[in-house]
Amino acid sequence: MTDISATQLSDYLDDAITLDSLRSALNHFSEEQKHQFKQQKSIIDLVTERSQFIDQLLIRLWRFYGFEQQPDLALIAVGGYGRGELHPLSDVDLLILSQHPLEEDVANNVSALITLLWDLRLEVGQSVRTVDECIAVGKDDLTVATNLTESRFLCGNQQTFHQLTVAINSPQFWPSETFFQAKLEEQRVRHARYHDTTYNLEPDIKSSPGGLRDIHTLSWVARRHFGATSLLEMSHHGFLTDAEYRELVECQNALWRIRFALHIELRRYDNRLTFDHQPSVAAHLDYHGEGNQAVEMMMKAFYRILRRVAELNKMLLQLFDEAIIKHGTRLDPIALNDDFQLRGNLIEATKPALFQARPETILDMFLHIAQNSDIEGIAAPTLRQLRTARRRLNRFLIEIPAAQEKFMELVRQPNALQKAFRLMHRHGVIAAYLPQWSHIVGQMQFDLFHVYTVDEHSIRVIKNLHKFNDPEHHSQHPICCEVYPRLIKKEILILAAIFHDIAKGRGGDHSELGAVDAYDFCIEHGLSHPDAETVAWLVQKHLLMSVTAQRRDIYDPEVVAEFAKQVGDEEHLDYLVCLTVADICATNQDLWNSWKRTLLAELYYSTQKTLRRGLEKTPDMRGRIRHNQQLASAILRSKGFIPRDIEVLWRRFKADYFLRHTHKQLAWHAQALLKHSGDKPIILMSKKATRGGTEVFIYSKDKAKLFAIVVSELDKKNLSIHDAQIMNSKDGYTLDTFMVLDPNGKAINENRHVGIIRNLTKALTVMKSERKIRRAPRKLLHFNVPTKVEFLSTKTGRKTMMELVALDMPGLLAKIGAVFAELNISLQAAKITTIGERAEDFFIIVNETGGRLTTEQQQLLRQTLILTINKHA
Asked: Is 349 helix (H, G, I), strand (E, B) or coil?
């Protein structure tokens, strides 16, 4: 392979500058860098040489376009390019600087130069300004000011560039105090975009907390205030120890290597380590293993780097604050005890080697944080001491008896959930205490359901439990905000939250394995056997309530009775509902909605009634039917309907219809049906959100493929079905109810109702749906979800219950409906659950005679579904 280094470009292009020759030079250079990267060449050399190569290219083009003849013009590198750092897809940020506005012919040449750079597929960011314009824009725009701070002269008039540097280095341009505070706010906003955690499953190498931007922020502040142009110069000002300087450089280089590997793999600029690119980046970085092992190893190393950078960033910005804002003055400390003191809103250790001498005092510090709401964080010198002590620990803190007592005291502190546990996780203290936790730090979860690593998800479960103490969250979590405050032993729930996913990544059932760990931990920490058993039960059953609510027919008394039997009593039910809601909300910020809240509430209250009535007593179904009919009839009579007409209509319907609908739904349906004449289908859509979604009621003559046509039409409108009640009248009409949500998980806007009703009516009239097959989102293509069909046993045996797991491809439900129609299978109810990339759907079905499917019919259905779904996957 031809080696075209930056210094050889001029020779390579001596004859002529053409688009093809420039592309050839760039391609050869990029290929050589890929080869050098795989040969483990220094990443510093690689990013520097790429910057130098682009320098030479631009200087040559500057001459080619005759800009040397413009006496006051200068070409300036700014931003990352100004720092001399370029990755394969990095932006080449340029400033064409002049002392006066450009004449037309010069402006045309500038435009031609930029167009050529775009044609070379360089990511160019450019601005053409006078010195005065730069200063004026920079004063109003922090990003521009930051880019100008990193200006680097390439070619042209040095005097023009000198005028700029004098102006931007002036204290009047951006006073260092103002610049520092603006950069702090900029970082706070950026971190919030990534949920204030380094542990996102698809992190951004540059912008995530602990990423390259956190290092840049330190450099920008140090440059503005101290004039330090590098990390090394920053260390000379006494803010960084030699070891911390080397650590920061090591972290930066590691992040550079990951970013370089990602850019090799991409065609367009991006810094996100997405699921589909993680395996190839891991391969470039020489991580190997079966399945996802290579990615897991790479990502765990990556998260360790982010945490180290985040800690150093936090520590140094605190020291900068003292130097820049407080001008070196420090508040007088307030003693908390012999070991700790409060300085402002930061806690400090009073002794320089406290944590090394008595490691258990690390937990004392977090006890103070939990007990004192004035404490906002840890002082920089103490954080530095904590980092040192943590690395020198030769055993886990749990092995120290005094530490065990302090940990349980922390768990029982009411305010520990809000701040102390979050800081303990951020600074590696939980991992230093609990061996099992250390194994899940940075543990990946390869799905589109979770957005955080296992440890970050678990810490957010704990944080969510604290919200249940706050009346402000009552509208979002009404049951939990009523239940949680009255729990006598909240530590049971907190320990269950810590352990509920702690066995992930080990293989086997993580709920079973985690339950064993939880029980042993509780006994070791002095809990009674009954309390230890409750914690272990919660860990083992932490998915039971969400699975039952979302994937079972919770209007079936048998389902509720079986769930109540597993729960046992109201105390366990209260613990479980709190853990379930906290778990769901910590999985994905967009996951919790009023639909899930309603499902869990209905299951909670149904189970509570069953437990209070007694598990051995069966509910009075006839009484419930009469009650619903009486209330619905009262509504209808008040609207002028004749009781005799209501009675005649309801004689056509089966008992299940009155059990599975509220009296308001019965009245709503009846109003439309009593006014209806002819065979045209009736489509109703609820104007108000029902259980968090929009209820679609369909009345039509029962026909084959009806379900398939309905779901196909709804799919065309990009709507998702979450629940379906499929019922037939005694005289051959359907009484189908679909619970439908829009792509944002909300009820459908009312202005869409007319169009949806019109399309459904037309499709059901002609019994045909012209469905265009939508492409699967790119992110789904990375996942392999084997299609599985399982048939569940029932007590009565009159119906067949089926579970289907498959990749959640567009049109999946329509395919399933078409198979049911093809095999003369009638659907009676469905629960549609999407968990990231997985569809986990539940169906109650019967054969053509209205009975349960035979073994042969089940086998045929399984084979046909798998074949049909996989055919276009």
From this structure: strand
Instruction: Classify 838 as helix, strand or coil.
Output: strand
Query: What are the residues facing 479 on neighbouring strands?
Result: none
Using CA atoms, how far apart are residues 828 and 172, in angstroms rounded to an integer? Answer: 74
Backbone φ/ψ region at 823: left (φ over 0), alpha (ψ -120 to 50), beta: alpha
Tokens matching residue 358: 């008595």
Task: Say if CB 669 and CB 699 are below 8 A apart.
Answer: yes
Compute the distance between CA of residue 278 and CA of residue 275 in angstroms, rounded to an integer: 5
Q: What's the maximum distance between 2 C-alpha atoms anywhere in the chain?
A: 99
Mean pLDDT, residues 627-654: 94
Residue 96 DSSP SS3: strand
Distance CA 262, CA 282 (A): 9
Please state which CATH number belongs to domain 681-871. 3.30.70.260
User: Which helix or strand (DSSP H or E) is residue 575 part of?
Assistant: helix 570-587
Give the rounded distance of the alpha carbon of 602 from its chain centre.
27
Is residue 829 a contact partner of residue 737, using CB atoms and an 8 Å limit?
no
Are the C-beta atoms of 378 and 346 separated by less than 8 Å? yes
Could you list the beta-strand ranges (E) of 74-205: 74-77, 92-98, 124-130, 152-156
The 10 Å Cβ neighbour count of residue 202 is 15
Token pair in block for residue 161? 């560039």
Tell me the angle at which helices 131-140 and 158-168 cross, rounded to the nearest 10 degrees. 30
Which contiguous run of DSSP H or E holds residue 108?
helix 104-119
Query: According to the 3-state scheme, what is the secondary structure of 781-821?
Result: HHCCCCCEEEEECCCCCCCEEEEEEEECCCCHHHHHHHHHH
Give me 772's structure tokens. 């265009």
Residue 4 is predicted with a pLDDT of 45
Distance in angstroms (rounded) separating the CA atoms of residues 210 and 255: 10
Structure tokens given for 614: 């007694």
* Contact (Cβ atoms closer than 8 angstroms) between residue 684 and residue 739: no
Query: Is pLDDT above 90 for 446?
Result: no
Amino acid at 412: R
CATH of domain 177-324: 1.20.120.330
Q: What share of the chain is helix, strand, coil (3-state, %, to 5)?
A: 55, 10, 30
Which listed CATH number (3.40.140.10, 3.30.460.10, 2.40.30.10, 1.10.287.70) goes with 6-174?
3.30.460.10
Task: Give the rounded distance of the alpha carbon of 462 from its chain centre.
Answer: 17
Residue pLDDT, tens place only, 738-749: 989 888 878 899
Q: For residue range 845-862, what is the model confidence (pLDDT) as tens digits?
A: 999 888 999 999 999 999
Q: Which of 717, 741, 707 is nearest to 813 (CA)?
A: 707
**DSSP secondary structure of 177-217:** HHHHHHHHHHHHHHHHHTTT-S-BSS-BTTTSTTSHHHHHH
The Cα–Cα gap between 518 and 538 comes to 10
Helices 663-675, 621-638: crossing angle, 10 deg rounding: 50
User: pLDDT tens-digit profile of 233-254?
Assistant: 877 877 888 899 999 999 999 9
Please provide the DSSP assignment of 352-412 as one string: TTHHHH-TTHHHHHHHHHHH-TT--EE-HHHHHHHHHHHHH-SS-GGGSHHHHHHHHHHHT
* pLDDT confidence of residue 19: 87
- Helix (H) / strand (E) containing 310: helix 293-324
- In DSSP terms, 738 is beta-bridged to 696, 724
> Which residues are 803's β-sheet partners?
790, 842
Question: What span, in angstroms and rounded, lies between the C-alpha atoms of 441 and 387?
Answer: 17
The strand pairing partners of 130, in sequence order, are 98
3-class SS of residue 418: helix
